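Take a specimen:
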Amino acid sequence: MSDKVSAGTYDLNRWLYGGYEKDIITTLYGGAGTGKTNFCLLAAVSLAKKGEKVIFVDTEGGFSVERVNQLVNGSGAENVLENILVLKPTNFKEQKDAFDKLLENLKEHVGLIIVDGMTMLYRLEFADARENGKDIGAIQKVNSELTRQMRLLAEIARKRNIPVIVTNQIYSWETEKRMVAGDILKYWSKCLIELVNDRGRREAILRKHRSLPEKTLVFQINDLGIKKRGWI
């Protein structure tokens, strides 16, 4: 039995030596328009085409039926969509509820869990707590809930051998770019992939992995997915 699942394209699988690892959390992070949702949809479609069930938690409204149809590239899109359970929380409380539903949906076999926008709603809740002058306990409660969710995902990945992919945003701090809630996500993620779009030049940078060195894939996004433009 393989210890990895397909990332959805030949070039990504080759870059990752077979795809995403099953028993860990992989975090894809980067700014808007860097390709995070495309990476998620590629993996989801690849598993769903094989009859595997995928749970897709979409906090940013990025899940697109039209894009799924493109990636399927032929008949069978309806069957693929039937294998993808999409949860769409609109606030941090609903995200918490969605995570509680994860355990219910794991009663049947699930091949992949994706959270596209792990910190989007957390960031809004955190900002609200701080701007409205709530005490430090309220802010700590928001952080504790995000930690609980990441811990839950890590336990599911490890104990049930289910790959988990989450995406994360970045923000500017003086002269550097940082992940939102970086310490929390870095602690629970065993694989970190940074996505960059520098005036049309797209790069995926493997920042952390249990067995692979840091390296970069230059890529482009097309109708069928992601295609390599070069290795660094």
User: Anything to note?
Assistant: The mean pLDDT is 92. Residues 4-231 form a domain with the Rossmann fold fold (CATH 3.40.50.300). The longest strand covers residues 191-198. The CA atoms of residues 48 and 80 lie 5 Å apart.
